[in-house]
Amino acid sequence: MAHVSLFWRIFALNAVGLIVAAALLLGPVTVSTPVLPGEALVVVAGLAALLAVNAVVLRVGLAPLGRLGRAMADADLLRPGARAVVAGPVETAELITTYNAMLDRLEAERAASAARALSAQERERHRIARELHDEVGQTLTAVLLQLKRVADHATDDLRGEVGQAQEATRAGLEEIRRIARRLRPGVLDELGLVSALRSLAAEFTTHGLTVRHDLRAGLPPLTEETELVLYRVAQEALTNTARHAGADRAELRLSPVSDGVELLVRDNGSGPGPATAEGAGIRGMRERALLIGATLTLTSGTDGGGTDVRLRIGTRAEAGSAPHPARGTGSGADRDPRAGVGEGAAPAHRSPTPGNHR
Fold it and tell me: Where is this region: Disordered (predicted)?
């Protein structure tokens, strides 16, 4: 019956009703005028039976369309894999199959376009970081040297003001270098993922926030794209903690699991409320996870407070995420920016702003 067309189901039901009515009219059954109570009861019972059977057939036949509508309403390209169950009459099953195929194409196109956009963002970040370091940084260094020469020949009255200008210039130079490091983490290129995450935890350990790290040894070989995605997700999650969570403790953990590796960023802050819409930062993390076939989940902390951000990368997804040969996380080889990384997180030392929106 599952392969019978919805048209034939309804047609058969109506045909049965008409045949029964015709048989009653041509048979010995008669209806008096005026209608007797017993005759009226038989007609009403027969009509009720036909309507009930018709309702059951329509409900069973149209139920897959209702499930398809709910699946379409709940579809989210940032949470791939959910598909409507193929069931029901032939027309409905074909419609659901077509919808699932369309969803496959949309997810593939979304992942490809996100990869291109994030790759372009990373190249732009690299270019800006290089210009900040080479152009602005060198200019401020030259200004510092000139101020030193001025301070050597300045009078006592001016030497204090020149010293203040030197300190302001030196602070600006340090800020430029810090921004350049966040735009393009050189430690990731030079020392590998574990050292980069350790440096990230130290950078976010500011007044009012302590970030502990647990970076396990024995990680499987990771591609360049995967290492960059892991670093950016950790950076964005810690930025959310510093800006929005109101937390005083956070934990950064990277460990091997049975089917790959898992990154965990946990804080003891307020966490996003159940009705809070996901912000650009979380959407960006989900897009990066899609690029390498990883799974990103956000849940409440184990004690009911705070937020757990988990990024789990399976070995199969990792092996197929990029054509580049895999390397250990401690490699010091230089690396070029690849797809799977996106806009950088904001500086961690800024004061957290109120609210849970992440």
Answer: 316-358
Top pLDDT among 340 and 16 is at: 16
Residue in the structure block whose two tokens are 């699991």:
257
- Of residues 16 and 336, more confidently modeled: 16
CB 330 within 8 A of CB 187: no
Tell me the domains of the chain and their CATH numbers: 6-107 (no CATH), 185-358 (3.30.565.10)
Q: What is the largest CA-CA distance in the chain?
A: 129
Instruction: Name the token pair of 282.
Output: 């979380």
Nearest to 83 by CA among 108, 100, 68: 100
Q: CA dihedral in degrees (123, 124, 125, 126; nearest 10)?
A: 50
Measure the CA–CA gap between 113 and 105, rounded to whole angstroms: 12
- β-partners of residue 210 are 249
Contact 163, 151 (CB under 8 A): yes
Query: Is 274 a residue whose pLDDT tops 70?
Result: no
User: How sure is the predictor about 228, in pLDDT bands with cuts at 50, 70 and 90?
Assistant: confident
Structure tokens at 227: 């290492």
Give the phi and the psi of residue 210 in degrees, each rounded to 5. Answer: -115, 125
Structure tokens at 333: 């080889």
For residue 346, give Cα distances in angstroms to 49, 170, 257, 341: 68, 21, 30, 15
Give the Cα separation of 285 and 96 in Å (integer).
30
Token match 């070995």: residue? 315
Within 13 Å of residue 124, how many CA atoms lie on the same side as its CB?
A: 9
Q: Which residues contact 295 (CB under 8 A, 6 or more apart)?
A: 289, 310, 311, 312, 314
Half-sphere exposure of residue 70: CA atoms within 13 angstroms, side-chain side: 6
DSSP state of 222: B
Cα separation, 100 vs 85, in Å, equals: 9
358: buried, middle or exposed (CB in 10 Å: 19+, 13-18, 0-12)?
buried
* pTM greater than 0.70 (yes/no): no
Give which of 350, 354, 338, 358 is closest to 178, Cα–Cα.
350
